[in-house]
Design brief:
Layout (H helix, E strand, L loop, with lengths): L5 E9 L4 E10 L7 E10 L2 H7 L4 E7 L7 E5 L16 E2 L3 E9 L10 E5 L7 E5 L3 E3 L6 H4 L4 H16 L3 E4 L5 H13 L2 E6 L2 H9 L4 E4 L5 H12 L3 E4 L2 E3 L1 H14 L14 E5 L4 E5 L9 E5 L2 H8 L1 H13 L11 E3 L7 H7 L8 E3 L4
Parallel strand pairs: 11-12, 11-14, 12-13, 14-16, 15-17, 16-18, 19-20
Antiparallel strand pairs: 1-2, 1-6, 2-5, 3-7, 3-9, 3-20, 4-5, 7-8, 8-10
Length: 375
Protein backbone atom coordinates (compact mmCIF):
# COMPACT_ATOMS: atom_id res chain seq x y z
CA UNK A 1 0.00 0.00 0.00
CA UNK A 2 1.81 3.12 -1.19
CA UNK A 3 2.08 5.97 1.32
CA UNK A 4 -0.28 4.20 3.71
CA UNK A 5 1.77 5.03 6.81
CA UNK A 6 0.90 8.73 6.64
CA UNK A 7 -2.24 10.56 5.71
CA UNK A 8 -4.01 13.89 6.04
CA UNK A 9 -6.49 14.40 8.87
CA UNK A 10 -8.82 17.33 9.52
CA UNK A 11 -8.15 18.88 12.95
CA UNK A 12 -9.90 21.50 15.08
CA UNK A 13 -7.92 23.42 17.71
CA UNK A 14 -8.92 26.15 20.16
CA UNK A 15 -6.24 28.30 21.80
CA UNK A 16 -6.36 29.98 25.21
CA UNK A 17 -6.39 33.31 23.36
CA UNK A 18 -9.75 32.44 21.83
CA UNK A 19 -8.89 31.33 18.29
CA UNK A 20 -10.32 28.22 16.64
CA UNK A 21 -8.28 26.85 13.75
CA UNK A 22 -9.27 24.19 11.24
CA UNK A 23 -6.36 22.58 9.42
CA UNK A 24 -5.24 19.48 7.56
CA UNK A 25 -2.43 17.76 9.43
CA UNK A 26 -0.20 14.94 8.23
CA UNK A 27 -0.39 12.09 10.74
CA UNK A 28 1.31 8.72 11.04
CA UNK A 29 -0.90 5.66 10.76
CA UNK A 30 0.59 2.86 12.87
CA UNK A 31 0.48 -0.80 11.88
CA UNK A 32 -2.72 -2.47 13.11
CA UNK A 33 -2.61 -4.64 16.21
CA UNK A 34 -3.96 -8.21 16.19
CA UNK A 35 -7.56 -7.03 16.59
CA UNK A 36 -7.28 -3.87 14.49
CA UNK A 37 -7.52 -2.78 10.87
CA UNK A 38 -6.40 0.20 8.81
CA UNK A 39 -9.17 1.57 6.61
CA UNK A 40 -8.80 3.86 3.61
CA UNK A 41 -11.70 6.23 4.25
CA UNK A 42 -13.83 6.86 1.18
CA UNK A 43 -16.92 8.52 2.68
CA UNK A 44 -17.75 10.35 5.93
CA UNK A 45 -20.90 12.43 6.50
CA UNK A 46 -21.07 15.86 8.10
CA UNK A 47 -23.63 15.49 10.89
CA UNK A 48 -24.78 18.24 13.27
CA UNK A 49 -22.94 16.41 16.07
CA UNK A 50 -19.73 16.69 14.03
CA UNK A 51 -20.19 20.42 13.64
CA UNK A 52 -20.27 20.78 17.41
CA UNK A 53 -16.65 19.59 17.59
CA UNK A 54 -15.53 21.06 14.28
CA UNK A 55 -16.69 24.63 14.93
CA UNK A 56 -17.46 24.60 18.64
CA UNK A 57 -18.46 28.01 20.00
CA UNK A 58 -16.67 29.99 17.26
CA UNK A 59 -18.13 33.18 15.85
CA UNK A 60 -18.55 32.20 12.19
CA UNK A 61 -18.69 35.84 11.10
CA UNK A 62 -14.98 36.13 11.96
CA UNK A 63 -13.84 33.37 9.55
CA UNK A 64 -10.45 33.97 7.92
CA UNK A 65 -8.85 31.72 5.26
CA UNK A 66 -5.31 31.11 4.00
CA UNK A 67 -4.50 31.03 0.30
CA UNK A 68 -3.10 27.47 0.18
CA UNK A 69 -5.44 25.34 -2.00
CA UNK A 70 -4.02 21.92 -1.01
CA UNK A 71 -3.53 22.57 2.71
CA UNK A 72 -5.99 25.35 3.57
CA UNK A 73 -6.49 26.73 7.07
CA UNK A 74 -9.52 28.50 8.51
CA UNK A 75 -9.38 30.61 11.66
CA UNK A 76 -12.27 31.94 13.76
CA UNK A 77 -12.55 34.00 16.91
CA UNK A 78 -14.18 32.43 19.97
CA UNK A 79 -15.98 35.01 22.13
CA UNK A 80 -14.37 35.23 25.57
CA UNK A 81 -17.61 34.38 27.36
CA UNK A 82 -17.80 31.08 25.45
CA UNK A 83 -14.29 29.84 26.24
CA UNK A 84 -15.40 28.33 29.56
CA UNK A 85 -17.65 25.95 27.59
CA UNK A 86 -14.60 24.37 25.96
CA UNK A 87 -11.99 24.67 28.69
CA UNK A 88 -11.19 20.94 28.54
CA UNK A 89 -10.12 21.11 24.88
CA UNK A 90 -8.01 24.28 24.99
CA UNK A 91 -4.73 23.61 23.18
CA UNK A 92 -5.81 20.14 21.97
CA UNK A 93 -5.61 19.37 18.24
CA UNK A 94 -8.80 17.35 17.90
CA UNK A 95 -9.68 15.02 15.00
CA UNK A 96 -13.25 15.28 13.71
CA UNK A 97 -15.85 12.96 12.18
CA UNK A 98 -17.95 10.46 14.14
CA UNK A 99 -18.54 7.87 11.44
CA UNK A 100 -17.47 6.83 7.96
CA UNK A 101 -16.85 3.98 5.56
CA UNK A 102 -14.09 2.69 3.34
CA UNK A 103 -11.91 -0.24 2.36
CA UNK A 104 -9.75 -2.24 4.78
CA UNK A 105 -6.18 -2.05 3.44
CA UNK A 106 -4.34 -3.62 6.37
CA UNK A 107 -5.55 -6.07 9.00
CA UNK A 108 -4.18 -7.66 12.14
CA UNK A 109 -3.97 -11.40 12.58
CA UNK A 110 -7.41 -11.70 14.19
CA UNK A 111 -9.10 -9.40 11.67
CA UNK A 112 -7.70 -10.88 8.43
CA UNK A 113 -11.23 -11.75 7.28
CA UNK A 114 -11.87 -8.00 6.82
CA UNK A 115 -8.96 -7.36 4.45
CA UNK A 116 -10.14 -5.72 1.21
CA UNK A 117 -13.72 -5.55 2.55
CA UNK A 118 -15.76 -2.36 2.55
CA UNK A 119 -16.82 -1.52 6.10
CA UNK A 120 -18.76 1.10 7.97
CA UNK A 121 -17.08 2.47 11.10
CA UNK A 122 -17.77 4.56 14.18
CA UNK A 123 -15.24 5.91 16.62
CA UNK A 124 -14.19 9.44 15.64
CA UNK A 125 -11.36 10.86 13.50
CA UNK A 126 -13.14 9.93 10.26
CA UNK A 127 -12.30 13.12 8.34
CA UNK A 128 -8.99 11.58 7.36
CA UNK A 129 -7.41 9.58 4.56
CA UNK A 130 -6.71 6.56 6.77
CA UNK A 131 -8.01 5.32 10.10
CA UNK A 132 -6.57 2.64 12.35
CA UNK A 133 -9.46 1.22 14.33
CA UNK A 134 -10.56 -1.81 16.35
CA UNK A 135 -12.20 -4.45 14.19
CA UNK A 136 -15.15 -4.55 16.60
CA UNK A 137 -16.00 -0.97 15.58
CA UNK A 138 -16.33 -1.98 11.91
CA UNK A 139 -19.36 -3.51 10.23
CA UNK A 140 -18.87 -5.21 6.83
CA UNK A 141 -21.17 -3.70 4.24
CA UNK A 142 -23.60 -5.90 2.31
CA UNK A 143 -22.49 -7.07 -1.13
CA UNK A 144 -22.91 -4.31 -3.67
CA UNK A 145 -23.11 -1.51 -1.10
CA UNK A 146 -20.80 1.45 -1.67
CA UNK A 147 -18.84 3.39 0.91
CA UNK A 148 -21.37 6.21 0.51
CA UNK A 149 -24.15 3.73 1.36
CA UNK A 150 -22.39 2.76 4.58
CA UNK A 151 -21.01 6.14 5.64
CA UNK A 152 -24.09 7.13 7.67
CA UNK A 153 -25.05 3.73 9.05
CA UNK A 154 -24.52 4.57 12.72
CA UNK A 155 -25.46 8.00 14.06
CA UNK A 156 -28.78 8.71 12.32
CA UNK A 157 -30.07 5.12 11.93
CA UNK A 158 -29.26 4.10 15.49
CA UNK A 159 -30.65 7.37 16.85
CA UNK A 160 -33.94 6.86 15.00
CA UNK A 161 -34.16 3.26 16.20
CA UNK A 162 -33.19 4.45 19.68
CA UNK A 163 -36.20 6.76 19.77
CA UNK A 164 -38.50 3.81 19.05
CA UNK A 165 -36.76 1.62 21.64
CA UNK A 166 -37.04 4.43 24.20
CA UNK A 167 -40.76 4.64 23.49
CA UNK A 168 -41.16 0.93 24.14
CA UNK A 169 -38.95 0.82 27.23
CA UNK A 170 -40.75 3.77 28.84
CA UNK A 171 -44.26 2.61 28.01
CA UNK A 172 -45.33 5.26 25.50
CA UNK A 173 -47.24 4.41 22.33
CA UNK A 174 -46.57 7.29 19.92
CA UNK A 175 -43.89 9.92 19.27
CA UNK A 176 -43.62 13.62 18.44
CA UNK A 177 -40.47 14.62 16.51
CA UNK A 178 -39.19 18.08 15.56
CA UNK A 179 -37.12 19.15 12.54
CA UNK A 180 -38.80 16.06 11.21
CA UNK A 181 -37.89 16.32 7.51
CA UNK A 182 -34.20 15.85 8.26
CA UNK A 183 -32.27 12.81 7.07
CA UNK A 184 -32.83 11.29 10.51
CA UNK A 185 -36.49 12.29 10.50
CA UNK A 186 -37.12 10.56 7.19
CA UNK A 187 -35.55 7.38 8.57
CA UNK A 188 -37.76 7.62 11.66
CA UNK A 189 -40.83 7.93 9.46
CA UNK A 190 -39.90 4.84 7.49
CA UNK A 191 -39.34 2.88 10.72
CA UNK A 192 -42.66 3.98 12.20
CA UNK A 193 -44.57 3.24 9.00
CA UNK A 194 -43.07 -0.25 8.86
CA UNK A 195 -43.65 -0.95 12.56
CA UNK A 196 -47.15 0.53 12.83
CA UNK A 197 -46.15 3.35 15.20
CA UNK A 198 -47.96 6.69 15.16
CA UNK A 199 -45.58 9.62 14.60
CA UNK A 200 -46.35 13.34 14.76
CA UNK A 201 -43.88 15.30 12.60
CA UNK A 202 -43.18 18.96 13.32
CA UNK A 203 -41.63 20.83 10.38
CA UNK A 204 -40.70 24.45 9.74
CA UNK A 205 -42.39 25.02 6.41
CA UNK A 206 -44.55 23.59 3.61
CA UNK A 207 -41.60 22.27 1.60
CA UNK A 208 -40.43 20.16 4.53
CA UNK A 209 -43.95 18.86 5.03
CA UNK A 210 -44.13 17.79 1.40
CA UNK A 211 -40.95 15.73 1.79
CA UNK A 212 -42.57 13.70 4.56
CA UNK A 213 -45.96 13.31 2.93
CA UNK A 214 -44.23 11.97 -0.17
CA UNK A 215 -42.86 9.07 1.89
CA UNK A 216 -46.21 8.35 3.51
CA UNK A 217 -46.26 10.41 6.72
CA UNK A 218 -49.76 10.88 8.15
CA UNK A 219 -49.29 13.54 10.81
CA UNK A 220 -47.32 16.62 9.68
CA UNK A 221 -47.64 19.95 11.52
CA UNK A 222 -46.04 23.23 10.41
CA UNK A 223 -44.59 25.23 13.32
CA UNK A 224 -44.65 28.41 11.22
CA UNK A 225 -48.44 28.27 10.73
CA UNK A 226 -50.77 30.50 12.73
CA UNK A 227 -52.79 27.49 13.92
CA UNK A 228 -49.73 25.41 14.84
CA UNK A 229 -50.66 24.82 18.50
CA UNK A 230 -54.20 23.79 17.62
CA UNK A 231 -53.07 21.41 14.85
CA UNK A 232 -50.35 19.95 17.07
CA UNK A 233 -52.86 19.30 19.85
CA UNK A 234 -55.24 17.61 17.42
CA UNK A 235 -52.46 15.35 16.12
CA UNK A 236 -51.33 14.46 19.65
CA UNK A 237 -54.90 13.70 20.69
CA UNK A 238 -55.44 11.48 17.65
CA UNK A 239 -52.22 9.51 18.15
CA UNK A 240 -51.99 9.44 21.93
CA UNK A 241 -48.38 10.66 21.79
CA UNK A 242 -46.83 11.33 25.19
CA UNK A 243 -43.15 11.23 24.15
CA UNK A 244 -41.29 13.88 22.16
CA UNK A 245 -37.79 14.17 20.71
CA UNK A 246 -36.64 17.72 19.99
CA UNK A 247 -33.74 18.46 17.65
CA UNK A 248 -34.12 22.22 18.04
CA UNK A 249 -33.37 22.63 21.73
CA UNK A 250 -33.71 26.38 22.13
CA UNK A 251 -36.93 28.36 22.07
CA UNK A 252 -40.48 27.40 23.04
CA UNK A 253 -40.97 24.20 21.06
CA UNK A 254 -40.40 21.68 23.86
CA UNK A 255 -42.90 23.53 26.03
CA UNK A 256 -45.41 23.73 23.19
CA UNK A 257 -45.22 19.96 22.76
CA UNK A 258 -45.85 19.39 26.47
CA UNK A 259 -48.75 21.84 26.38
CA UNK A 260 -50.30 20.02 23.43
CA UNK A 261 -49.96 16.70 25.28
CA UNK A 262 -51.58 18.17 28.40
CA UNK A 263 -54.46 19.74 26.46
CA UNK A 264 -55.04 16.49 24.57
CA UNK A 265 -55.09 14.50 27.83
CA UNK A 266 -57.59 16.91 29.39
CA UNK A 267 -60.01 16.42 26.51
CA UNK A 268 -60.85 12.99 27.92
CA UNK A 269 -60.23 13.69 31.62
CA UNK A 270 -63.02 12.47 33.89
CA UNK A 271 -62.64 15.26 36.42
CA UNK A 272 -60.83 18.53 36.97
CA UNK A 273 -57.56 18.53 38.90
CA UNK A 274 -55.75 21.65 40.05
CA UNK A 275 -52.49 19.78 39.39
CA UNK A 276 -53.31 18.98 35.80
CA UNK A 277 -53.53 15.65 34.06
CA UNK A 278 -51.97 12.58 35.66
CA UNK A 279 -50.79 11.41 32.21
CA UNK A 280 -46.99 11.58 32.22
CA UNK A 281 -45.46 13.52 29.35
CA UNK A 282 -41.78 13.45 28.37
CA UNK A 283 -39.74 15.52 25.91
CA UNK A 284 -36.09 14.72 25.24
CA UNK A 285 -33.81 17.36 23.70
CA UNK A 286 -31.26 15.64 21.48
CA UNK A 287 -30.05 18.49 19.26
CA UNK A 288 -29.10 22.16 19.30
CA UNK A 289 -30.33 23.70 16.06
CA UNK A 290 -31.26 26.70 18.22
CA UNK A 291 -28.50 27.58 20.72
CA UNK A 292 -30.78 29.90 22.69
CA UNK A 293 -32.44 29.13 26.05
CA UNK A 294 -35.07 26.40 26.25
CA UNK A 295 -38.24 28.23 27.30
CA UNK A 296 -40.96 26.37 29.21
CA UNK A 297 -44.22 28.26 29.73
CA UNK A 298 -45.63 25.86 32.29
CA UNK A 299 -49.16 25.20 31.12
CA UNK A 300 -48.90 21.41 31.25
CA UNK A 301 -49.61 20.37 34.84
CA UNK A 302 -47.12 18.54 37.05
CA UNK A 303 -46.73 15.13 35.37
CA UNK A 304 -43.95 15.86 32.90
CA UNK A 305 -40.25 15.68 32.26
CA UNK A 306 -37.67 17.38 30.04
CA UNK A 307 -34.22 15.86 29.65
CA UNK A 308 -31.35 15.26 27.29
CA UNK A 309 -30.98 12.21 25.05
CA UNK A 310 -27.72 10.97 23.54
CA UNK A 311 -27.20 7.83 21.49
CA UNK A 312 -24.23 6.22 23.24
CA UNK A 313 -25.53 6.56 26.81
CA UNK A 314 -28.83 5.11 25.55
CA UNK A 315 -27.06 2.12 23.98
CA UNK A 316 -25.23 1.46 27.24
CA UNK A 317 -28.47 1.64 29.20
CA UNK A 318 -30.43 -0.49 26.71
CA UNK A 319 -27.88 -3.28 26.83
CA UNK A 320 -26.06 -5.44 24.27
CA UNK A 321 -29.10 -7.44 23.11
CA UNK A 322 -31.08 -4.37 22.04
CA UNK A 323 -27.98 -2.70 20.58
CA UNK A 324 -27.16 -5.80 18.51
CA UNK A 325 -30.73 -6.03 17.24
CA UNK A 326 -30.64 -2.39 16.18
CA UNK A 327 -27.34 -2.83 14.31
CA UNK A 328 -28.61 -5.92 12.50
CA UNK A 329 -31.64 -4.04 11.28
CA UNK A 330 -29.48 -1.21 9.95
CA UNK A 331 -27.35 -3.63 7.93
CA UNK A 332 -30.42 -5.50 6.62
CA UNK A 333 -32.16 -2.26 5.53
CA UNK A 334 -29.10 -0.17 4.69
CA UNK A 335 -30.20 0.91 1.21
CA UNK A 336 -33.93 1.16 1.97
CA UNK A 337 -35.10 2.31 5.42
CA UNK A 338 -31.71 3.79 6.30
CA UNK A 339 -30.65 5.19 2.93
CA UNK A 340 -29.02 8.62 3.11
CA UNK A 341 -29.02 11.21 0.34
CA UNK A 342 -26.36 13.88 -0.02
CA UNK A 343 -26.39 17.38 -1.42
CA UNK A 344 -22.75 17.17 -2.47
CA UNK A 345 -19.59 15.14 -2.05
CA UNK A 346 -16.49 17.14 -1.19
CA UNK A 347 -12.80 16.46 -0.48
CA UNK A 348 -10.93 17.22 2.72
CA UNK A 349 -9.53 20.49 1.36
CA UNK A 350 -12.96 21.50 0.08
CA UNK A 351 -14.37 21.04 3.60
CA UNK A 352 -12.20 24.06 4.50
CA UNK A 353 -13.40 26.19 1.61
CA UNK A 354 -15.21 29.17 3.20
CA UNK A 355 -18.14 29.05 0.78
CA UNK A 356 -18.66 25.31 1.20
CA UNK A 357 -18.33 25.48 4.99
CA UNK A 358 -20.90 28.26 5.09
CA UNK A 359 -23.30 25.97 3.22
CA UNK A 360 -22.90 22.80 5.29
CA UNK A 361 -22.84 24.51 8.69
CA UNK A 362 -26.37 25.85 8.07
CA UNK A 363 -27.73 22.35 8.84
CA UNK A 364 -30.57 23.07 6.42
CA UNK A 365 -33.24 20.43 5.87
CA UNK A 366 -32.43 18.32 2.84
CA UNK A 367 -28.82 19.53 2.65
CA UNK A 368 -26.36 16.90 3.86
CA UNK A 369 -22.71 16.85 2.80
CA UNK A 370 -20.39 13.87 2.41
CA UNK A 371 -16.59 14.05 2.65
CA UNK A 372 -14.58 11.73 0.38
CA UNK A 373 -10.95 11.98 1.53
CA UNK A 374 -9.75 10.20 -1.63
CA UNK A 375 -10.74 13.21 -3.77
Amino acid sequence: MADATTGLELRSTITAEGRLTLSLEEVAVAEPGPDEVVVRIEAAPINPSDLGLLLGPADLATMRATEEPDRPTLTFDVPEQRLAMVAARIGESMPVGNEGAGTVVRAGANAAHLLDRKVGMIGGAMYAQYRRIAARDCVPLPDGASAADGASMFVNPLTALGFVETMRLEGHKAIVHTAAASNLGQMLNRICLADGIELVNIVRGAAQGAILRDIGATWVVDSSAADFQEKLTDAVAATGATLGFDAVGGGKLAGQILTAMETAANRTAGAYSRYGSTVFKQVYVYGSLDLGPTVLNRAFGMAWGVGGWLLFPFLQKAGPEIAARMRRRVVDELTTTFASRYTATIGLAEALDPHILTAYQRKATGEKYLIDPTR
